[in-house]
Amino acid sequence: MQQERRRDSQQWILDLMVKQTGRVQNFANDEREVPSEVKSYRMIPRALAKQARHAEAIAAAAERAGHTDTARAAYAKAAEIYAHAQHAIFEDDNQEKIYLHRKHLECFEKVVQYADNPVELVEISWEGVQIQGRLHLLKDRRRAPTVLFIPGMDMTKEMFPNPLGNPYLRRGMNVLSIDGPGQGMSNIRKIRVSDDNYERAAGAAIDELLERPEVDPDRIAVVGTSFGSHWGTRLAAMDHRVKALATTHACYGPKTAIFEEASPRFKQMFMYMAGIHDEAEFDAMAARMTTVGYGSKITCPTLMVTGEYDPLAHLEATLELFDEIRAPKELWVFENEFHRVQAREGIAGLELHQFMSDWVKDALDGRLPADLSKIVLVPQKTGEGPYTPPAESLYLPSRSVD
Protein backbone atom coordinates (compact mmCIF):
# COMPACT_ATOMS: atom_id res chain seq x y z
CA MET A 1 0.00 0.00 0.00
CA GLN A 2 1.35 3.44 -0.94
CA GLN A 3 2.54 5.58 1.95
CA GLU A 4 0.50 8.78 2.01
CA ARG A 5 0.78 10.02 5.58
CA ARG A 6 3.67 11.06 7.83
CA ARG A 7 3.07 8.21 10.24
CA ASP A 8 2.68 5.47 7.62
CA SER A 9 6.38 4.71 8.00
CA GLN A 10 5.71 3.81 11.63
CA GLN A 11 3.33 0.97 10.78
CA TRP A 12 5.50 -1.37 12.87
CA ILE A 13 4.33 0.43 16.02
CA LEU A 14 0.68 -0.14 15.13
CA ASP A 15 1.49 -3.79 14.34
CA LEU A 16 3.13 -4.15 17.76
CA MET A 17 0.10 -2.63 19.48
CA VAL A 18 -2.22 -4.96 17.56
CA LYS A 19 -0.18 -7.96 18.70
CA GLN A 20 0.10 -6.88 22.33
CA THR A 21 -3.38 -5.43 22.92
CA GLY A 22 -5.59 -7.05 20.30
CA ARG A 23 -6.75 -3.55 19.34
CA VAL A 24 -6.04 -1.05 16.56
CA GLN A 25 -7.31 2.03 18.40
CA ASN A 26 -8.65 3.05 21.82
CA PHE A 27 -5.67 1.33 23.40
CA ALA A 28 -6.67 2.37 26.92
CA ASN A 29 -9.43 -0.25 26.87
CA ASP A 30 -8.43 -3.70 28.07
CA GLU A 31 -10.64 -6.05 26.06
CA ARG A 32 -9.27 -7.57 22.84
CA GLU A 33 -11.09 -6.92 19.57
CA VAL A 34 -9.16 -9.25 17.27
CA PRO A 35 -8.25 -12.91 17.84
CA SER A 36 -4.94 -13.80 19.46
CA GLU A 37 -3.66 -15.25 16.17
CA VAL A 38 -3.48 -11.71 14.76
CA LYS A 39 0.12 -10.50 15.00
CA SER A 40 -0.06 -7.56 12.55
CA TYR A 41 -2.67 -5.22 11.11
CA ARG A 42 -2.71 -6.88 7.69
CA MET A 43 -3.84 -10.16 9.28
CA ILE A 44 -7.09 -8.68 10.60
CA PRO A 45 -9.48 -9.07 7.63
CA ARG A 46 -8.82 -12.77 7.00
CA ALA A 47 -8.65 -13.71 10.69
CA LEU A 48 -11.98 -12.00 11.35
CA ALA A 49 -13.45 -13.52 8.17
CA LYS A 50 -12.66 -16.95 9.59
CA GLN A 51 -14.51 -16.07 12.81
CA ALA A 52 -17.45 -14.67 10.87
CA ARG A 53 -17.74 -17.77 8.67
CA HIS A 54 -17.88 -19.92 11.80
CA ALA A 55 -20.74 -17.86 13.26
CA GLU A 56 -22.50 -17.90 9.87
CA ALA A 57 -22.18 -21.70 9.63
CA ILE A 58 -23.76 -22.07 13.08
CA ALA A 59 -26.55 -19.71 12.03
CA ALA A 60 -27.27 -21.68 8.86
CA ALA A 61 -27.32 -24.98 10.78
CA ALA A 62 -29.73 -23.55 13.36
CA GLU A 63 -31.90 -22.22 10.55
CA ARG A 64 -32.04 -25.65 8.87
CA ALA A 65 -33.09 -27.14 12.20
CA GLY A 66 -35.94 -24.64 12.44
CA HIS A 67 -34.35 -22.84 15.41
CA THR A 68 -34.82 -19.36 14.05
CA ASP A 69 -34.27 -17.50 17.32
CA THR A 70 -30.80 -19.03 17.63
CA ALA A 71 -30.19 -18.54 13.92
CA ARG A 72 -30.91 -14.83 13.99
CA ALA A 73 -28.60 -14.30 16.97
CA ALA A 74 -25.77 -16.13 15.20
CA TYR A 75 -26.41 -14.25 11.94
CA ALA A 76 -26.24 -10.97 13.92
CA LYS A 77 -22.89 -12.02 15.34
CA ALA A 78 -21.57 -12.95 11.91
CA ALA A 79 -22.76 -9.63 10.44
CA GLU A 80 -20.96 -7.72 13.19
CA ILE A 81 -17.67 -9.57 12.65
CA TYR A 82 -17.83 -9.19 8.86
CA ALA A 83 -18.33 -5.44 9.39
CA HIS A 84 -15.13 -5.18 11.42
CA ALA A 85 -13.27 -7.35 8.90
CA GLN A 86 -14.13 -5.12 5.93
CA HIS A 87 -13.43 -1.95 7.88
CA ALA A 88 -9.78 -2.89 8.27
CA ILE A 89 -9.26 -2.37 4.53
CA PHE A 90 -9.19 1.23 3.35
CA GLU A 91 -8.70 1.26 -0.39
CA ASP A 92 -11.10 1.46 -3.32
CA ASP A 93 -12.04 -1.55 -5.45
CA ASN A 94 -10.34 -4.00 -3.08
CA GLN A 95 -11.90 -7.39 -3.79
CA GLU A 96 -11.59 -8.56 -0.19
CA LYS A 97 -13.30 -5.44 1.16
CA ILE A 98 -16.13 -5.75 -1.37
CA TYR A 99 -16.58 -9.44 -0.54
CA LEU A 100 -16.54 -8.91 3.24
CA HIS A 101 -18.99 -5.99 3.04
CA ARG A 102 -21.33 -8.09 0.90
CA LYS A 103 -21.18 -10.92 3.45
CA HIS A 104 -21.92 -8.39 6.20
CA LEU A 105 -25.09 -7.34 4.38
CA GLU A 106 -26.14 -10.91 3.56
CA CYS A 107 -25.98 -11.94 7.21
CA PHE A 108 -27.80 -8.82 8.32
CA GLU A 109 -30.61 -9.52 5.85
CA LYS A 110 -31.09 -12.85 7.64
CA VAL A 111 -31.41 -10.98 10.93
CA VAL A 112 -34.02 -8.72 9.34
CA GLN A 113 -35.89 -11.77 8.01
CA TYR A 114 -36.38 -13.11 11.53
CA ALA A 115 -36.72 -9.78 13.38
CA ASP A 116 -39.85 -9.11 15.44
CA ASN A 117 -40.45 -5.72 13.85
CA PRO A 118 -40.18 -4.32 10.30
CA VAL A 119 -36.72 -3.18 9.20
CA GLU A 120 -36.77 -1.53 5.78
CA LEU A 121 -33.83 -0.79 3.49
CA VAL A 122 -34.29 2.75 2.17
CA GLU A 123 -32.51 4.68 -0.56
CA ILE A 124 -32.23 8.40 0.15
CA SER A 125 -31.74 10.82 -2.73
CA TRP A 126 -29.11 13.43 -1.98
CA GLU A 127 -27.17 15.71 -4.32
CA GLY A 128 -27.36 13.39 -7.31
CA VAL A 129 -26.52 10.17 -5.46
CA GLN A 130 -28.30 7.63 -3.25
CA ILE A 131 -27.31 6.92 0.31
CA GLN A 132 -28.73 3.92 2.13
CA GLY A 133 -30.50 3.68 5.46
CA ARG A 134 -32.14 1.03 7.60
CA LEU A 135 -35.50 2.11 9.02
CA HIS A 136 -36.50 0.19 12.15
CA LEU A 137 -40.26 0.59 12.64
CA LEU A 138 -42.63 -0.23 15.46
CA LYS A 139 -44.44 -3.48 14.88
CA ASP A 140 -47.86 -1.83 14.42
CA ARG A 141 -46.34 0.95 12.25
CA ARG A 142 -48.18 3.63 14.23
CA ARG A 143 -47.05 7.26 13.95
CA ALA A 144 -44.31 7.71 16.52
CA PRO A 145 -41.28 9.77 17.52
CA THR A 146 -38.27 8.85 15.40
CA VAL A 147 -34.53 8.83 15.97
CA LEU A 148 -32.03 9.52 13.19
CA PHE A 149 -28.96 7.54 14.25
CA ILE A 150 -25.61 8.80 12.97
CA PRO A 151 -22.92 6.09 13.20
CA GLY A 152 -19.25 6.63 13.87
CA MET A 153 -16.57 6.61 11.20
CA ASP A 154 -15.84 2.91 11.80
CA MET A 155 -19.48 1.81 11.68
CA THR A 156 -22.09 0.80 9.14
CA LYS A 157 -25.82 1.41 9.38
CA GLU A 158 -26.29 -2.28 10.22
CA MET A 159 -24.18 -2.10 13.39
CA PHE A 160 -26.75 -0.12 15.38
CA PRO A 161 -29.46 -0.54 16.45
CA ASN A 162 -29.56 -4.30 16.89
CA PRO A 163 -32.95 -5.46 15.57
CA LEU A 164 -32.96 -8.13 18.30
CA GLY A 165 -32.58 -5.62 21.12
CA ASN A 166 -33.44 -2.05 20.17
CA PRO A 167 -33.80 0.19 23.26
CA TYR A 168 -35.38 3.04 21.28
CA LEU A 169 -37.98 0.75 19.75
CA ARG A 170 -38.84 -0.58 23.20
CA ARG A 171 -39.59 2.99 24.24
CA GLY A 172 -41.91 3.61 21.31
CA MET A 173 -39.49 5.28 18.88
CA ASN A 174 -38.60 4.37 15.30
CA VAL A 175 -34.92 4.51 14.29
CA LEU A 176 -33.35 5.36 10.94
CA SER A 177 -29.64 4.51 10.77
CA ILE A 178 -27.75 5.76 7.72
CA ASP A 179 -24.58 5.08 5.76
CA GLY A 180 -23.65 8.71 5.31
CA PRO A 181 -20.84 9.87 3.01
CA GLY A 182 -17.76 7.75 3.68
CA GLN A 183 -19.60 5.02 5.58
CA GLY A 184 -20.66 1.46 4.68
CA MET A 185 -22.38 1.27 1.32
CA SER A 186 -21.37 4.86 0.57
CA ASN A 187 -17.74 3.73 0.67
CA ILE A 188 -18.49 0.97 -1.82
CA ARG A 189 -20.30 3.50 -4.01
CA LYS A 190 -17.40 6.00 -3.61
CA ILE A 191 -19.63 8.65 -2.08
CA ARG A 192 -16.98 10.69 -0.29
CA VAL A 193 -17.20 12.62 2.95
CA SER A 194 -16.04 16.23 3.10
CA ASP A 195 -15.77 18.74 5.92
CA ASP A 196 -19.43 19.77 5.61
CA ASN A 197 -21.41 17.41 3.37
CA TYR A 198 -22.38 14.80 5.96
CA GLU A 199 -24.72 17.28 7.63
CA ARG A 200 -26.44 17.91 4.30
CA ALA A 201 -26.84 14.18 3.71
CA ALA A 202 -28.32 13.78 7.19
CA GLY A 203 -30.71 16.62 6.39
CA ALA A 204 -31.84 14.64 3.33
CA ALA A 205 -32.46 11.69 5.65
CA ILE A 206 -34.78 13.92 7.71
CA ASP A 207 -36.55 14.89 4.47
CA GLU A 208 -37.09 11.16 3.86
CA LEU A 209 -38.49 10.65 7.35
CA LEU A 210 -40.99 13.46 6.89
CA GLU A 211 -42.46 11.57 3.93
CA ARG A 212 -43.21 8.53 6.08
CA PRO A 213 -46.66 8.10 7.70
CA GLU A 214 -45.03 6.25 10.61
CA VAL A 215 -43.00 9.34 11.61
CA ASP A 216 -44.26 12.11 13.88
CA PRO A 217 -42.72 15.15 12.15
CA ASP A 218 -42.68 17.19 15.35
CA ARG A 219 -40.69 14.63 17.34
CA ILE A 220 -37.48 13.82 15.49
CA ALA A 221 -34.31 13.27 17.49
CA VAL A 222 -30.71 12.80 16.45
CA VAL A 223 -28.45 10.33 18.24
CA GLY A 224 -24.79 10.19 17.24
CA THR A 225 -21.85 8.11 18.38
CA SER A 226 -18.11 8.76 18.04
CA PHE A 227 -17.64 10.86 14.88
CA GLY A 228 -21.44 10.94 14.81
CA SER A 229 -21.15 13.22 17.85
CA HIS A 230 -19.43 15.76 15.58
CA TRP A 231 -21.87 15.38 12.68
CA GLY A 232 -24.90 15.24 14.99
CA THR A 233 -23.89 18.43 16.79
CA ARG A 234 -23.44 20.35 13.56
CA LEU A 235 -26.69 18.96 12.13
CA ALA A 236 -28.73 20.06 15.16
CA ALA A 237 -27.16 23.52 14.94
CA MET A 238 -28.14 23.84 11.27
CA ASP A 239 -31.49 22.03 11.13
CA HIS A 240 -34.05 22.97 13.74
CA ARG A 241 -36.37 20.15 12.73
CA VAL A 242 -34.22 18.24 15.22
CA LYS A 243 -36.10 18.38 18.54
CA ALA A 244 -33.61 16.48 20.70
CA LEU A 245 -29.92 15.66 20.40
CA ALA A 246 -27.95 12.98 22.24
CA THR A 247 -24.33 12.18 21.42
CA THR A 248 -21.69 9.93 22.94
CA HIS A 249 -18.10 8.69 22.46
CA ALA A 250 -16.90 12.24 22.04
CA CYS A 251 -15.43 13.81 18.91
CA TYR A 252 -16.24 17.39 19.90
CA GLY A 253 -14.15 20.46 19.22
CA PRO A 254 -11.18 20.58 16.82
CA LYS A 255 -9.85 17.33 15.35
CA THR A 256 -6.17 17.57 16.25
CA ALA A 257 -6.49 14.89 18.94
CA ILE A 258 -8.10 12.24 16.73
CA PHE A 259 -5.97 12.81 13.63
CA GLU A 260 -2.56 13.77 15.09
CA GLU A 261 -2.35 12.26 18.59
CA ALA A 262 -4.36 9.01 18.53
CA SER A 263 -3.81 5.80 16.56
CA PRO A 264 -2.78 6.50 12.94
CA ARG A 265 -5.67 4.31 11.86
CA PHE A 266 -8.13 7.19 12.38
CA LYS A 267 -6.39 9.40 9.83
CA GLN A 268 -5.75 6.51 7.44
CA MET A 269 -9.42 5.61 7.48
CA PHE A 270 -10.78 9.13 7.20
CA MET A 271 -8.52 9.98 4.27
CA TYR A 272 -9.94 6.89 2.53
CA MET A 273 -13.49 7.96 3.42
CA ALA A 274 -12.78 11.40 1.95
CA GLY A 275 -11.03 10.05 -1.16
CA ILE A 276 -8.01 12.25 -0.40
CA HIS A 277 -4.48 11.00 -1.06
CA ASP A 278 -2.54 14.13 -0.17
CA GLU A 279 -2.00 14.65 3.56
CA ALA A 280 -1.64 18.42 3.33
CA GLU A 281 -4.95 18.63 1.48
CA PHE A 282 -6.59 16.48 4.14
CA ASP A 283 -5.11 18.54 6.97
CA ALA A 284 -6.61 21.68 5.44
CA MET A 285 -10.02 19.98 5.33
CA ALA A 286 -9.67 18.63 8.88
CA ALA A 287 -8.94 22.14 10.17
CA ARG A 288 -12.47 23.09 9.09
CA MET A 289 -14.00 20.10 10.87
CA THR A 290 -14.88 21.51 14.27
CA THR A 291 -17.90 21.99 16.50
CA VAL A 292 -16.54 25.28 17.84
CA GLY A 293 -19.19 27.97 17.30
CA TYR A 294 -21.99 25.49 16.60
CA GLY A 295 -23.22 24.98 20.17
CA SER A 296 -24.74 28.47 20.38
CA LYS A 297 -26.93 27.65 17.37
CA ILE A 298 -28.53 24.56 18.93
CA THR A 299 -32.11 25.15 20.08
CA CYS A 300 -33.16 21.65 21.17
CA PRO A 301 -32.47 19.78 24.43
CA THR A 302 -28.98 18.30 24.21
CA LEU A 303 -27.27 15.40 25.96
CA MET A 304 -23.50 14.94 25.69
CA VAL A 305 -21.70 11.83 26.99
CA THR A 306 -17.94 11.41 27.27
CA GLY A 307 -15.18 9.60 29.06
CA GLU A 308 -13.18 11.74 31.47
CA TYR A 309 -9.96 10.99 29.58
CA ASP A 310 -11.30 10.55 26.04
CA PRO A 311 -8.18 10.83 23.86
CA LEU A 312 -10.17 11.84 20.77
CA ALA A 313 -11.81 14.88 22.36
CA HIS A 314 -10.13 16.21 25.47
CA LEU A 315 -12.42 17.17 28.33
CA GLU A 316 -11.63 20.87 27.88
CA ALA A 317 -13.01 20.77 24.31
CA THR A 318 -16.14 18.96 25.48
CA LEU A 319 -16.76 21.53 28.23
CA GLU A 320 -16.22 24.40 25.79
CA LEU A 321 -18.98 23.03 23.55
CA PHE A 322 -21.26 22.40 26.53
CA ASP A 323 -20.76 25.99 27.71
CA GLU A 324 -21.74 27.30 24.25
CA ILE A 325 -25.16 25.62 24.30
CA ARG A 326 -28.03 27.81 25.50
CA ALA A 327 -30.77 25.18 25.14
CA PRO A 328 -31.59 22.68 27.93
CA LYS A 329 -28.47 20.58 28.30
CA GLU A 330 -26.90 17.75 30.24
CA LEU A 331 -23.38 16.27 30.23
CA TRP A 332 -22.44 12.84 31.57
CA VAL A 333 -18.70 12.43 32.21
CA PHE A 334 -17.66 8.84 32.96
CA GLU A 335 -14.98 8.86 35.63
CA ASN A 336 -11.63 7.32 34.60
CA GLU A 337 -13.04 6.20 31.22
CA PHE A 338 -11.79 6.87 27.72
CA HIS A 339 -13.44 6.97 24.29
CA ARG A 340 -15.73 3.99 24.70
CA VAL A 341 -18.20 4.48 27.53
CA GLN A 342 -20.47 1.63 26.49
CA ALA A 343 -21.10 -1.09 29.12
CA ARG A 344 -18.74 0.51 31.64
CA GLU A 345 -18.58 -0.05 35.41
CA GLY A 346 -20.22 3.30 36.09
CA ILE A 347 -23.49 1.98 34.66
CA ALA A 348 -23.08 -1.54 36.05
CA GLY A 349 -22.01 -2.88 32.66
CA LEU A 350 -25.39 -2.06 31.11
CA GLU A 351 -25.93 -0.83 27.58
CA LEU A 352 -25.40 2.93 27.44
CA HIS A 353 -28.33 3.40 25.05
CA GLN A 354 -30.69 2.15 27.76
CA PHE A 355 -29.99 5.42 29.55
CA MET A 356 -29.69 7.60 26.46
CA SER A 357 -33.00 6.39 25.03
CA ASP A 358 -34.74 7.26 28.32
CA TRP A 359 -33.27 10.76 28.11
CA VAL A 360 -34.30 11.18 24.45
CA LYS A 361 -37.85 10.05 25.18
CA ASP A 362 -38.10 12.49 28.10
CA ALA A 363 -36.82 15.29 25.84
CA LEU A 364 -39.31 14.53 23.05
CA ASP A 365 -42.14 14.21 25.58
CA GLY A 366 -41.37 17.67 26.98
CA ARG A 367 -40.40 16.37 30.40
CA LEU A 368 -37.09 18.21 30.74
CA PRO A 369 -36.90 21.56 32.58
CA ALA A 370 -36.46 24.58 30.33
CA ASP A 371 -33.54 25.71 32.50
CA LEU A 372 -31.78 22.32 32.55
CA SER A 373 -27.99 22.74 32.78
CA LYS A 374 -26.42 19.81 34.56
CA ILE A 375 -23.06 18.05 34.58
CA VAL A 376 -22.94 14.57 36.10
CA LEU A 377 -19.66 12.89 36.93
CA VAL A 378 -20.63 9.21 36.64
CA PRO A 379 -18.56 7.47 39.34
CA GLN A 380 -16.64 4.42 38.21
CA LYS A 381 -17.50 2.06 41.06
CA THR A 382 -20.14 3.81 43.22
CA GLY A 383 -23.09 6.15 42.87
CA GLU A 384 -26.21 5.92 40.72
CA GLY A 385 -24.85 6.16 37.21
CA PRO A 386 -26.24 9.16 35.30
CA TYR A 387 -28.80 9.62 38.10
CA THR A 388 -25.94 10.69 40.40
CA PRO A 389 -26.40 14.27 41.69
CA PRO A 390 -24.69 17.01 39.66
CA ALA A 391 -20.97 17.55 40.16
CA GLU A 392 -19.73 20.74 41.79
CA SER A 393 -16.64 20.65 39.59
CA LEU A 394 -14.67 18.28 37.37
CA TYR A 395 -11.34 19.78 38.44
CA LEU A 396 -9.23 19.87 41.58
CA PRO A 397 -9.25 21.27 44.19
CA SER A 398 -13.03 21.75 44.34
CA ARG A 399 -13.81 18.36 42.85
CA SER A 400 -14.56 15.53 45.26
CA VAL A 401 -12.09 12.65 44.94
CA ASP A 402 -13.68 10.30 47.47
Could you walk me through the main structural features you see in this protein, from its secondary elements to its overall organization?
With 402 residues, the protein is an alpha/beta fold. The chain folds into two domains: 8-114, no CATH class; 118-402, Rossmann fold (3-Layer(aba) Sandwich). The chain has 13 helices and nine strands. A nine-stranded mixed sheet has the order 1-2-4-3-5-6-7-8-9, with helices on both faces. The longest helix has 21 residues, at 44-64.
Fold topology:
Layout: H1 11-21, H2 44-64, H3 68-87, H4 95-113, E1 119-126, E2 129-136, E3 144-150, H5 167-170, E4 174-178, H6 184-188, H7 197-210, E5 215-225, H8 227-238, E6 242-248, H9 256-261, H10 264-274, H11 279-287, E7 302-307, H12 315-324, E8 329-334, H13 352-364, E9 373-378
Parallel strand pairs: 3-4, 3-5, 5-6, 6-7, 7-8, 8-9
Antiparallel strand pairs: 1-2, 2-4
* Coarse shape: globular
Please give the number of β-strands. 9
CATH class designation of the largest domain: Alpha Beta
Q: What count of domains describes the coordinates?
A: 2
Rounded to an integer in angstroms, the radius of gyration calculated over CA atoms is: 20 Å
Overall pLDDT: 96
Instruction: Characterize the biggest β-sheet.
Output: 9 strands, mixed
Instruction: Quote the distance from N terminus to C terminus.
Output: 50 Å
Derived structural class = alpha/beta
CATH superfamily of the largest domain: Alpha/Beta hydrolase fold, catalytic domain
For the biggest β-sheet, the strand order reads: 1-2-4-3-5-6-7-8-9
Work out the strand percent: 15-25%
